[in-house]
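From the shared-data thread, chain only:
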Amino acid sequence: MELKRRERVLAVLAIAVLAIWAADQLLIEPLWGLWKARQERLSELSASILHGRSLVDRAAAISERWQEMRGRSLPADEPAAEQAVLVAVSRWAGTSRLGVSALKPRWREDEGGRRQIEWNAEAQGDIAQIARFLYELERDSLALRVEELDITARDNRGETLALKLRFTGLVFEEKTS
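Structure, as tokens:
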């Protein structure tokens, strides 16, 4: 059976379309996907390199900031650390004229192996005294952070307030090697 010229052209076109489709499915699509994945990876690596260069460029400033933070941490010796916080609380209470009625320390270690001292404090005063006390705590150079804060009224008019406060101080151990 001999194919006519038109049928031969259609057969060649059909075979060509199938060949192009097969090439697309077997070669072009996988290679395109690989190329896109590599482009994304190159973009990630470029961003990582830029971040690394940024860190290297800022190494001196970062190191200086780290040393400053270590200098503000509490002493590794427990009594000395407790004494430093007691002196600071006394100073804040004096500045704010807030009556501190209870102050209890508790030592603990976090997941990273860093030691912290946790303080529970109770005090009474008006809103201005409490605000000033908290301001002094936050701006102090010691490495302290307010974890929990509760203010309640002690009278019907809300003039006398009770403050319950939990704050922590960070202690960096000096490594000896």
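The chain has two domains: 5-57, 74-171.
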